[in-house]
Amino acid sequence: MRHLTRHDTFNSHGRGYHGGQRPSQRSAGAEMRALAWLARHPLTWIVPAVAVVAGVRFGWAPVAGGFGLLALVVTVWWRAHPPTFDRLAAPWLRSQRRRWSVYAGRRWSDLMSDCDLVRESRASGHLAVPRVERVQSVSRSLDTVRVRIVRGQGMRVWTEQSEALAHALGAERVAVVKHRPSVLTMVVERQMPFTMPLEAPAIPASPDLVDLRALDIGDDEYGQPMTISVIDGSHPLGVGATGSGKGGIMFGTLRQCGPLIRDGLVRVWMIDLKGGTETELARPLFHRHATTIDDALEMLREARDSMKADQQRMRGEKARRTQVSTATPLDLIMIDEMAMLTAYGDRSQVREALRLLAEIMTQGRASLWTVAGFLQEPTKDIVEIRELFTTRICLGVTAASHVDMVLGEGARERGALADEIPLDEEHAGIGFRIDKRSRMPRRLRIGLTTDADVAELVRLCTPAPRLASVPAHSEGVA
Fold it and tell me: Is 50 inside any structural domain?
């Protein structure tokens, strides 16, 4: 580090000026800024330049004919085969159109200024505007914009202005997340991506088609399958108010596991403390079914003892992991309206239920035990073991605070506006989850299951009587 000499001076903000020289107050010339802009956007001059050279060399009529033929081919492709056009060409064309019509030029500068996201240089007076590096419009409803923020800004400034940005852009919501130092990703949801309810997930034709690490129970806002895992220690938690579509998560998971349930490779332990009304229709699918808190505690004790027996067997076999088979099936414990078990019962029973669940969830990974919970209110005093659920889905809720309780601190600030989802049939199944890679809230919609869908599952996937009555994993376990 260089030691300051008597020739070094300081400005009023305490910053040193090298050699006593003040920094220049002039900004770069307009022509230099224009050249830099052209260097960052080469297609804006390469395409016209190629067209001019071709016109001079071959004549303007062939060039015009070539562009006309290209336009005709694109139009015919657009009208004749929408699936391939929408997958291959539409995202690029849409991205370019929105890049230049929304996220560039005076309109972008005015947007940044209106939302207080510009900074004025104290030395030159030049107004620094965040620069758009990339725009991707993978669907009509969603833009992903990569922005290089101006020097001296932080992520908090942008997250605090996300609501203002959404209003300024006429969008449903804007979510902001860090991409790399000095660069952020802004997700602009221009309209609700889900206009129609999704059908219930299909029942796979055979066990070989079931992937317990990726059960497809809906779609995300990018049009990709929304999958969950029920193996390798992945414990799903679905939270939502009455009418939000939680049943779609539960029965969608069961439909995706259907062939494995039928063949005895997955056993379902169902706890429904609302009198069994929600799950009675599917009762033939269940290995165990409890509708009172006493029965539920007895079931959890049986499950815990079976898990311990599995661990003892694995130690004897010197096996670190268990593979799914008819002898060692995956045991899936589902708890509908979990608060009745973990908060609203007798205090001694609640403590016992929490202890048993925590024991199973923390120790059952290698021996193929999974817990899936569903509830309306996710506060800590309702579910003390909330952090043990590794996959969390937040459907429509009634309080803004519930969003962060389910998806983690700051999730609502980053755009997971689950409390603003209308709680009606038209919006049932819509919610959010956190993308594991980007940590960005991703909107999703769960397929809705009707009584007819549940009846179909029971008809096609009920285990044979000999499989339904299989005892616990190891002999001698009660």
Answer: no
Give me the domain span that covers residue 273.
Answer: 207-468
What is the strand order of the sheet 225-228 is part of?
225-228, 215-220, 441-446, 430-434, 391-395, 236-239, 369-375, 330-336, 266-272, 288-290
Q: Which of 4-8, 52-56, 388-392, 404-408 has the lowest mean pLDDT?
A: 4-8
Regarding whether 89 and 138 lie in a shared domain, the answer is yes
Report the alpha-carbon angle 356-358-361, nearest 5.
110
State the DSSP string of 91-146: HHHHHHHHHHHTSSHHHHHHHHHHTT--EE-TTT-PEE--EEEEEEEEETTEEEEE
- φ, ψ for residue 287, nearest 5 deg: -70, -40
Radius of gyration of the chain (CA): 29
Q: Are 344 and 338 in contact (CB under 8 A)?
A: no
State both tokens at 421: 């989802």
Binned at pLDDT 50, 70 and 90, residue 475 comes out as: very low
State the number of CA atoms in the 13 A half-sphere of 160 facing the CB. 8
Q: Give the three-state DSSP class for 90.
A: helix
DSSP, residue by residue, 432-477: EEE-TTT--EEEEEEPP--HHHHHHHHHHHPPPHHHHT---SSTT-
Close Cβ partners of 167 (under 8 Å, ≥ 6 residues apart)? none
Joined together, the tokens standing for residue 426 give 């038209």
What are the CA-CA distances from residue 253 to residues 228, 268, 423, 444 (Å)?
8, 11, 22, 15
The answer to whether residues 294 and 374 belong to one domain is yes
Q: Rounded to whole angstroms, how far apart are CA atoms 266 and 246?
A: 21
- Sign of the alpha-carbon dihedral angle for 222, 223, 224, 228: positive
DSSP helix/strand/coil, 38: helix
138 forms bridges with which residues in the sheet? none
Based on the fold, state whether residues 240 and 103 are members of the same structural domain.
no
Q: pLDDT of 220-250, one tens digit each?
A: 988 889 999 999 889 999 999 988 999 999 9
Say if CB 198 and CB 448 are below 8 A apart: yes
